[in-house]
Specification:
With 99 residues, this protein is mainly α. The chain contains 5 helices and no strands. Helix 2 packs antiparallel against helix 3.
């Protein structure tokens, strides 16, 4: 059963009047997770779960993340300067961070 908070946030989808999938309204999971994450009234556990799920969807964490380069497998002291710079650039690109 859905809680009042879930209803207020629009997380409870409308019941379809019939089972024709072509007429069902779309459900944007990313937008709903972002709403939970940005809602100050949402419980901390729900916000943390939404953040983790978004990170998993983006491939930043979890088993579906992109395979690490040599830099992630080797100890930092064993990397050359060029390898360190390459690994930093890969991480910046992945996270969308500008140097």
């Amino acid at each position: 059963m859905a809680s009042n908070l879930e209803r207020e946030m629009g997380l409870v989808p409308d019941k379809p009047k019939h089972r024709d999938n072509k007429t069902l309204r779309g459900y944007d999971v990313r937008a709903k997770l972002r709403e939970v994450l940005d809602n100050p009234k949402a419980p901390p556990q729900a916000r943390a779960a939404a953040g983790r799920t978004l990170a998993e969807i983006d491939g930043l964490i979890g088993r579906h993340q992109t395979a690490p380069s040599k830099g992630a497998l080797a100890q930092v002291g064993q990397l050359s300067r060029a390898e360190l710079e390459g690994e930093l650039q890969r991480l910046r690109d992945k996270l969308g961070v500008k140097p």
